[in-house]
Amino acid sequence: MTAVDTPPAAVRHRAAATHRLLRAARGDLLAAAGAAVLLLIVLAALAAPLLAPHPGDGTDATHPAQALLGPGGDHLFGTDGVGRDVLSRVLYGARTSLTIVVSVLAVSALIGVALGAVAGYAGGLVRDAIMRVTDVFLAFPALLLSVALAVVLHPGVQGAIIAITASWWPWYARTSAVTAAAIRSRGFVDAARCLGVPHARILLRHVLPNSLTPVLVQLSLDAGGIILTAAALSFLGLGPQEPTAEWGLMVQQGQSLLTTDWWVVAFPGLAIVVTAFCFNVLGEGLRAVLDPRREAAR
Amino acid sequence: MARYLLRRLAQAVLVVAGVVVLTFVVMRLVPGDPAVTYAGPRATAAQLAQARTELGLDRPLPVQLWDYLASLARGDWGTSLRTKQPVLDDVATAFPASLELVGTAVLVAVLAGLPLGLLAARRGRGGADATVRISSMLAVSAPVFLLALLAQNLLATKLGWLPVAGEYDPELDTTSPLTLFTNVTAVDALVTGNWAVLGSTLRHLVLPALAIAAYPTGVVAQMTRAALLEEAAQNHARLERALGFTRWQVLTRFSLRPALGPVLALLALVFAFSLVNAFLVESIFNWPGLGRYAANAIRSSDTPAIAGVTLAVALAYVLVNLLVDLAQAALDPRVRIG
Fold first, then answer.
1. What is the reported pLDDT for B297?
2. For residue B79, what are the β-bridge partners?
3. Pairwise CB contact (< 8 Å): B22 & A140
4. Residue B77, in any domain of the structure
5. What Rg do the C-alpha atoms of chain A give, in angstroms?
6. Which chain B residues are within 8 Å of A224, Cβ to Cβ?
7. Is the complex ipTM more than 0.85?
């Protein structure tokens, strides 16, 4: 190793990563398929008002006369207990779920990476203080803290986002603290410090960009878990409330109908499983590509 | 080892203190005035003021926190608004049933997940590997409440193979009443030789335990596979292959033991996760555990009970983590120094 190793050029690094991604997509068909299906789900969520056969049913319309019609004809996925089109609600539910996932990931990563990078870079007392706080948050099983918070917050999409974020950010703090600590001892950080570059700038320009890769991998792996957590909160009645279309809530409301009118539960349930599955296989695939230690093991 | 033990214990104490503070803070976020909940909606101003004094709400927050800590230490976890019982008693009655359920599920997960992971790692990429990978990924992607609902409606209600709900047949309470020792029904039935209750409990246990077991089984299988493949890529594995051991022999004789470390560490996490998953499954199967208690508490906004359950589960989790860390340190000297 030279005295001052060159900072990994972000551009070259990114191009190489893209190339590796494309090559890996050919090797890992499952992850590629997961990514493709996810893309479709995102598009369907965005275009829900256009795609839904009965857009009004995604929100507060009810048609009691058409309650519990089986799948087929005008209602491809059937209708629910108050006559709403299940397909339309599943499409609108994708919006709710993806909103929650994206918000939770963005806020958690922001808080976690910022605190983690500061902890890892500063070391010493600052690091200890921040890490002890994350330890406390991590001492609660993730869903438990979310449930406890959701109980006291106003139930709804926003409440669910806050509740889930509270139990998710410490993981990012821990991950990026470890990476930042490793980067701190690299030559190019020493060099920057010797040249008199202020700490804030070193943190922003050198430590942060280089500690993002492990976080990226974790983001995609966590998305599946967040879908499930959000669904669980809704199932407990602590998530988005009627008439918001949300998959977990739809399953909860249809649970007594499962033996007679299976479609009310089956389609939203399937939507949860498929979305979580796609996020998980994509996350696994990304980890294999971006985490060289794992790659060697395959 | 003694040094490590002390350091780890000190850390656990610190975390427990933090857990109590965080629980306190979260429960203070409750919208609305706890005094109103306590005194009832038709309380007069004087009654409200009295409730406030009784609950200690008129004193500064740090004092309230200190009181909270002190009363927790005394074993006073507050009174449930719903059952009107001390929360600690409620939790102590419900916890064993949850442990029974989650313990069975984690046991199933280890017994099924380890062989599945081994099977997947046996030949590297191939049919068995792909099958195990996809099915374990499906298992961790399915919401536990959906699995529970499907199992209950299909296997119990429709086909009638197994009981629909409950912990054991309530009629047995009169025909062969159970003597309680540990409050874990299956254990008590076994110890006292109460075969009727034992059989009934085991039959009632199958569906909820399997629903909860799906997630940890998938996680254990994935983790075992990954750890084994990582071990198999090490130099010592190459040497053993060169010495003439078959791939299977290398896996089972040399790679399995070092691969068990990460899987063991994972079990604490999986156990805690399953305990919270039981919240959803227990209310579906009407299993008299902590989860059903919590679900009822959530439904009736029973804050003291929710705080109690949160605290109990978090404390159990800290304890399990401590035990796993100590077990790992005992098995692997590197952990002690690190």
1. 87
2. B86
3. yes
4. no
5. 23
6. 140-141
7. no
